[in-house]
Structure formats: structure tokens, C-alpha cells
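Two entries, shown back to back:
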Amino acid sequence: MRILWRAGLPALTCESGLRGSGLHALTGGSGLYALTFALALLSACQRAPAPAVSEADRPGFGGDFTLTTQDNQPFHLADVRGRPVVLFFGYTSCPDMCPMTMSRITGAVARAGAKPSDVVTLFVSVDPKRDSPAVLKQYVASFKTPPIALTGTDEEIRRVAAEYHASYELVPSATPNYLVNHTTAIFLIDRRGRLRQYFAFDEKPESLADALRSLLDEKG
């Protein structure tokens, strides 16, 4: 089991297959506290789904950013104001969790009774070395409802990850086929561009759908 604590949210790694829920948890530290929190993560899937977070209780981080799309065009989070946004971090060579996350998001949008055009899904690559706009464009085309894929320089990606208390780390490898440990949370952003809630990648689909439905019902 491996948990990255650096930026505040546990990074569920692609090779570890850790299954736990960090819903609403802001973390930090090490030692006994880290162990206690890790055990909480492993048992959290037994809990009932949490209700959608109210505006007053939303996390105190997140924010606007600028990156580059799969069409090699600049993207600003402000460009999609007026629609709820679902954001996650990953990379095109991710063996399992990234495709699973995309599938869960697609399912949640359908469960919420929304049309795909009602919600913006953003896929932020944490592997800018390999994930060029052209590579991202080919990758997202394989999904039934393609997300907007985003890349940038190492500095730009790290800045966005830090804004959302996410983290990532390349796993050393003697070959070009390296893995990247990364935070696998799903971030839900409201129509005004504010982070309202985040979920572990394996949170029950109904939880994400309920929260998404709440944001769709809100006026901008």
C-alpha cells in the first residue's frame, strides 16, 4: 500500500490498486496520524454515501487555471462558467484507474439525468512529457463522451495540482513505459468555478450523481 501525502489528498496509485474513500478529507502529516487515516480510508467504503456539500461547506481550495487542450488551444476554467465541471488527474498510459474514473463519471452524469453537454469533464494529464495534445486527442476520442483533455508544461501542471491539493510522482523505470502515481480523486466544480466537493475514484456512483444533480439544479 502506498499513499502520497505531499499536497494534502492521498494519491491512490495506479500500481497499488488501493481502494478507499477520502471523501471530504484534508490530510497531512505522517506517523501514527497517517496510519490512522490510512485505516480510515480502507474502511470508508462501508459508510453510507455523504450528502452533497452545501455552498457554505465547500472546500477552501481549488480555483481558476490555464492549460492547453487536445486541440492545442488555450483553456481557462473560466471559459466553461455556467456549467458544472467534473475534473480528474491522470495520464494516457494509466493502466486501469483513469479509464475506470472516466467510466464512473460518464455513469454519474447519466444517473443524474443530465445530457453530456450539460456537464464539462476535464482530464488533466500529469504526464506532459508523453501526453502531447496529439496523443491526448487520440486518447479521448476512444470515450463515448470525450472529456476536454488538458496538458501544459511541468510547472503549469504542478501549479494546477497544487491548487487542487493533488499530487503526482513518476515511478522510476529503466524503460519508457513508466508509471505515474497520482491523486485519483474526482473534483466537482460548480457553475461559478468553485470547488464544491471531491470524491475517491471508487465512491459509489450514486454519491457523485446526487452531488452533480444538486449542482445542476442550482442557478448560476
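entry 2 starts here
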Amino acid sequence: MLKYVSIQYNCSHGDLFMVTPCEIAVKSLIPSIRAYIAKELTQTHKMRQEDAARLLGITQTAISKYVRDVRGQVIKVHQTPEIREMMYRIASRVADQKISGPELTLEFCAVCKTVRRNGLMCSLCQRNDPSLDARHCNVCKNDLDCSVT
């Protein structure tokens, strides 16, 4: 039987780290972004859930859960005007079918970087690692370039 070991990074102490902000974003932030976009597509743009699902590359069931607030509610990114505007523009481009898959991926990354830079994921990181002192952690607040050269 495999035992899961979570090695984490405490920014204030410089300890080793395995649970990255990107992993937390995948579990919490990306679903929140999708929930906002799903609601925009189905409510503002009057799109059927099946059509929204096809455009986002997810299932109709996922869209239904996002629209009913069953999924994607861990972090309320839509409460920040800058981020809400970014997600609104994404939803509009998706609705108009003026965005490719790779462009959509880059737009999600841009939203994620903005959320992280503004410190909106700090509470999630701290919940994941209670020893983390988010006031002294600058991992997400630095100018982010997620690519490796």
C-alpha cells in the first residue's frame, strides 16, 4: 500500500516543497474560473449547457455543477473587479468562438497569475500548510513566469 507524503514549502524557513501553488490552483482556482465562465455562457450569453461544455472541453454535468454552485466555489475570484473583467472577456471570446484551445489555456494562466500576484490564494496555501506564514511568502507575488528555460 502506498502512503501519500506531502512535502511542503514554508516560505519563511526555506524548507523543501512539493505541493506547489499550481497544484492548489488546479484543485481550487481553475474550477472557480470555469464556474464563472460557465455561468456567463449559460446565463448572459443564453447558451445551452451542452454547447458551453463543448466549447470549454468539459462535460455538460460539469457545467451543471458550476452553474448550480456545486463545484468551483472554494475561491471567489469574481469578487475582484480586475479578475472578473478578465474572466468576462474570456467568456465573451468563447461565446463568440473567437478563441482557440491554446489561447484559452493562456488566458486561464493569465487569470491564475493575477490571482496569485494579488495574494488571493494565500489562504488556500496556508490551509494546505498551516506552518506557512503567508505574510512572509512571496512565491506567488513575484513576477511570475511559469515556464522553465
